Each structure stands twice: as C-alpha cells, then as structure tokens.
Amino acid sequence: MKQAQSRSFSHAAITFLFSLTALAASSAFAQNIAVVNSKPIPKAKADEMVAQAVKQGQANTPELQNAVREQLITREILLQEAAKQGYGSNADIQQQIELARQQVLIGALANDYFKNNPPTDAEVRGQYDALVKEMGNKEYHVRHILVETEPAAKAIITKLKAGAKFEDLAKGTKDTGSAEKGGDLDWAQPSMFVKEFSDAMVKLPKGKFTEVPVKSQFGYHIIRVDDIRDMKAPSFEEAKPQIVQAIMQNQQWQQMKFQALIQDLRGKAKIE
Fold this sequence. Notes:
Layout: H1 2-31, E1 32-36, E2 39-42, H2 43-55, H3 62-84, H4 91-116, H5 121-135, E3 138-147, H6 150-161, H7 166-169, H8 176-179, E4 184-188, H9 195-202, E5 214-216, E6 219-230, H10 236-248, H11 251-268
Antiparallel strand pairs: 1-2, 3-4, 3-6, 5-6
C-alpha cells in the first residue's frame, strides 16, 4: 500500500514539474516574439515598432505585427552575422556608430527644446496677420480651360464669344482634374492659384471670362468667374493651434531656435 502511494506521488511530482516547465516556456514566449540562435527578441521591441507604425497612420493588424516580427528576426540574424565577422571591432564602423549616437542625442535635445520653447504670441500673431492678408476677403467660384498654346487659347475665346458653352469646351482642357466638371475649380481664394491666374481672376466681374489668354507655368488659361462672395477669416484664437503647429514644423524656425540654443549653451560653457 505504501509503495503504491509512493508511485502515485512520484507520478504527480513529474506531472507538476512538466507543468512548471511548460508554464516557464509559455511565459518566455509571451515576453519574446522569437528566439534566434538562443538570442531572444523582446516583445516590447516589436510593440514599440508597431506603435510607431500606427502613429504614422498604419492600422494595427495581424499582418503588420507579423511584418514587424519578420523584420526584427531578419535584423537579428544580420547583426549576429556582422558580429561573427568582427565588424563590431572595426575602428571606422565604431566611429560611424559614435557619430550616429551623437546625432540621435542632439536630435532628442533639439526636439525637446522646440517643444518646451514654442513660438511666442508675437510670432504667431505675425504669421496670422500675414496669412489673413494673403487670403484676402473674397472667395471666387471659378472655372478655367487650360491649353498648351496661345493660338489654341485664342481660338477657344473666339468660340466663347460666338456663344459656345464654356463647360463643353472645358472638357478638352489640359487640366484633366477639372475637365469632367466643365473646368470647375470650386470656391477658392486668390492665394491658392499661381500669381498670373489669381491676378487675372480678381479683375473679372461675376459671370465674365478672360478675353485675353492668361499665361502661366502650366500653359494658357481662359478663366471664368461664376460667383464671388465675402470671406471671413477665422479668429486668431481659432487659428492659433494650427499656426503654432505649422511654425514648429518649419525648418527655418527650427534652425533659428537651435542656433539660439547653441549660442546660449556656448555662453555658459567654459571653453579653453
């Protein structure tokens, strides 16, 4: 009887040990997405890459997760091979790695500096006033016909004067995006067009077309203004968040800010 109990206990102990081993393996796989030549690839690394892809607009799908996993496995295989061949001890490569490390650190410093030192209200107000002035206070519902040559444009103007429908002639426009809509460019502000186009457009009365071809970098335009309406610009407070974001993404502003940071730090540094 005691022997039977001993066997039963021994079997239970073995089963328990196997369960622990399986649990440990399961935990390891939960922490890692793969193990390459005994080197684990942490799941956290894959999660970071997926999160970055999602931030850039990709959907978090099983396909994306699998693509990230495959990329990390391939990278690990290549890194192991590079290490095996001794590239890690190459002086030139070490120098490149150090330069890359410095660039990453300086880039992080700059990005945090920009976030902590956003544009001043004066900068934002100046940009707002410039945008309002550029936009003007009118919107135009405009159509156009675009052709390659001046003679072709003059021939179309002759047809229009003879009673041809603008919308019908616009089907042959070089601007394929508006051709199916009879040359319709919808409501727009003058600042949305090249200068030659907008200058001619704002001089036209409602319902009239240009009787002289308008030359631009795209070709020769015949422009018709279908309607004109007053336009009210958004208030400063409404536009401020978008303007701040636009300024902070402007490379010229970033360079100016970064130079100010450099000058400040050099002034505080002890240089011998």
